[in-house]
Amino acid sequence: MNSICPLCDSSKNKSVGRPKTNSISKNFIDNDYKVVQCLNCDVYYVSPRISFSEEQWSKLYNNEYFSSQSDWLIKKRAEELSQRFDKASKYLKGDQISFLDVGCGEGKSLIEGFKRDWEVTGIDIVDNRIEAAKTGNGNFIVGNFIDQKFPKNHFDFIYLDSVLEHVLNPKEYLLKIKEILKIGGVCYIGVPNEDSLFNIIRKIVFTLLGRNDFSVKIKPFDNPYHIIGFNEKSLKYILNELDLEIVYLRNFGRKFDFLSHTPNQRGYWIGLFFLLPIEFIGNMFNKDVYYELLISKKTN
Hints:
The protein is of the alpha/beta class. The protein is built from 8 helices and 11 strands. Strand 2 and strand 3 form a beta hairpin.
């Protein structure tokens, strides 16, 4: 059962390598884990199924998980967030918008919701909100999303940015989203593209360095702790299976993030001469590093 695909329940898969660990996760590892790809729906996942406790997950997602950011990057992320909300707003009806952020992290989306006078709710397994996210008139829940009792057909806008790749049961998450999302409402989903050109190049580099046994797909036991990996096929597969409609889909990357570093930092030059060209080429062939979607309930 541990090798059953979390999206389609198929037992047919192929190994793509061993996952790396870090100083925190290595204390929890009690199995010979491997990263596999489902041969039916294409999703990447960990086999056998990870059996960490909630306390162990909380240790992984401590405050150090959220790395420091430059002023330039903070401003850029805020602009991107506002643009996402503007895009979603085009599909929303009425003035009283009920908003839920699942896995709200530092709470920057909650702040954006406050600015728009929405009814704001955030949930995460630990409270890592910055102070500005705690001062607004909203509701915050510490706990597991699946365990919460939300009203059916309640939320106009649900936000899942960089969430589905972190959960063992993405199908359950999407089923619950479908249950609590209003007809006519939308859900934003943002996930990495595991079949990006960047990962293809990484695999070539790993092979040249004699590390072909390590997986470049998902990083379940090292920051950013991705335990499920999507590509376009697997995204479309699960949404179609759950009768959810894609109303907007974009493959994109953040091509100028090297500007978040100063020229005297290594990240600046790696980003400029290595990551930037890869992302430009990847975007041309729909193999950029990230996907964002707006989905809704089908009405027929």
